[in-house]
């Protein structure tokens, strides 16, 4: 009955489109004919339509298995907009009340509902299985099907239970859809869903409008991001971070720098999360800072940039996330910040997981590293990862193609690599092959007695970076292949063996070098080594010394060393900017700041130091709820030990908090407490010590004052002293 349907007419009638995109029509016809269908289509290619339209044309209800509640809600709303009947689409998940679920079931039984979205967890519930057994199912659609595979970037164990449940409810055609899948993931999905005979439709993974770039991630990464966003006007963008904490921090920093940004992660309450997502979709804000929990099924067509603050765990995840940019075919900038430290961190996170999971995780991460470090066209590498060949030498739309490196002849090196792989019987991974070439006597090499091989040490004239580049580019050229099923062992292809017999020119570009130009966070260390401008740091110290003599206070009372280091790095020239320096509150800036700002301004002018306005990052003042509450309690003259008890912290922790408050320039009066617990002369002795001393270190004070004074007393009087003298 469905074979003679004019699909273009139906498309126009239900969705208002005149033509299908890419493979859509062929996919829909295959499903209407009752055949299992496997769809590989990049983000923005129009996957949803491949099951939405047939569900309206076929008898019964289609079940769409989808991983995210937010995604289901969006899709159901979209379908209801296309139809006059609200009951045309429903979802069942944990967010619905009992009466809402009864309404859904009633609409299904009456035949109104053509599409039912369920999470895999809801599908496996006994009462749902019992109900669906008595329903006419038109077909099953498994969206985001890569979640089935442990090799996919978003593996969910409950997805592996879908097939047995389908068998229980009643068989019908299955359509599995994903935007990212290597051949390994594809096999895994088809095998697990029992659809190895499925007709496969694969669209090109090339998104020609997306620009790809990898930048070195240094301590100035926040500054780089602010500058990038401000250069891009009011365009919409997504910034992905790996941790929830970083999402919150970065969103605050962007807001402090005048950028309309909000956070999004799974740890937030649902109402806030949804409100932030809606604000982004409605363009009340420009930027959403999120974990990878954000984005699946987000149909915003005009996202103009996607930034990865941290190294992604896999290239599949990276491709999926960058695919959210430029879905309307317009501009889409994809920038990844890369650092070896991030890679090491991700490596550490994997420890403690089951060995097979660790092995998979490491292989996926190595592919991301290869993508980031390589100087080859980014498109070529991405498409090669998805088993698609990109034949152009220069795509003209990635950082490597716009700034090409000189090609170097690597014919002999490739021969050496092939010989080494064959010598170890194609049984080892890339890093091991490089150890053999470099002649490294690692325990693994010695265990296999490979130090006796003729090829051992044959590549000592070059470094690890060179050999990585040779192997990565030989994989793209088809001379080598990786056995993904088997821990990524390197194999030599037929073309590789031919090359060894009859070598020809093999030109490569050397890998990019990434230096983590890491400077520890300013307030954490002292010494001029931390300051970017040691000359200015020295001048600021001299000024502090001069002022301390004039005002008759110790130098540290004015500004501590970490604050001077930050000044010699960020170059604040106004009192407002000075308040962005760690340890400088409004009071301190007003009292001492003028001369420091004048000195910095003069230094910048004389040395022609470039300090454009958008290069300075406004940090977020750390007025946490706890600090504000402590200040209020002290204002009300609550005893300090009672404050500690009320806040559930010990007395030492309370003193830490109070010290942080007074050192950043807020004045606190704790005389009421000191008068209760300390003898006046005793207190005066400690106060006088700090007045005369050149250091505020507690250990030095204890040595000088002797055993009659406790550490707690000294700390309390130091708080009084700093508050009165410095603030």
Secondary structure topology:
Blueprint: H1 7-15, H2 24-32, E1 37-40, H3 49-57, E2 61-65, H4 69-82, E3 89-92, H5 98-109, E4 115-118, H6 120-123, H7 126-133, E5 137-142, H8 162-169, E6 174-178, H9 183-192, E7 199-202, E8 210-216, H10 221-231, E9 236-240, H11 244-256, E10 261-264, H12 270-281, E11 287-290, E12 303-308, H13 315-322, E13 332-338, H14 340-350, H15 355-373, H16 378-385, H17 399-402, E14 408-409, H18 411-423, H19 430-438, H20 443-447, H21 464-477, E15 480-483, E16 489-492, H22 494-501, E17 507-508, H23 534-551, H24 555-558, H25 561-570, H26 575-578, H27 586-606, H28 625-635, H29 640-647, H30 651-663, H31 671-677, H32 680-692, H33 698-705, H34 711-726
Parallel strand pairs: 1-6, 1-7, 2-4, 2-5, 3-4, 5-6, 8-13, 9-11, 9-12, 10-11, 12-13
Antiparallel strand pairs: 14-17, 15-16
Task: Report on the architecture of this protein.
With 727 residues, this protein is α/β, with parallel strands linked by helices. It has five domains: 2-202, P-loop containing nucleotide triphosphate hydrolases (Rossmann fold), CATH 3.40.50.300; 210-402, P-loop containing nucleotide triphosphate hydrolases (Rossmann fold); 408-508, Winged helix-like DNA-binding domain superfamily/Winged helix DNA-binding domain (Arc Repressor Mutant, subunit A); 522-615, DNA polymerase, domain 1; 625-726, ATP-dependent DNA helicase RecQ (Arc Repressor Mutant, subunit A, Orthogonal Bundle), CATH 1.10.10. The chain is 48% helix and 11% strand. A seven-stranded parallel sheet has the order 3-4-2-5-6-1-7, with helices on both faces. A six-stranded parallel sheet has the order 8-13-12-9-11-10, sandwiched between helices. Strands 14-17 form a two-stranded antiparallel ribbon. Helix 2 packs parallel to helix 3, helix 23 packs across helix 25 (561-570) and helix 23 (534-551) crosses helix 27 (586-606). The relative contact order is 0.06.
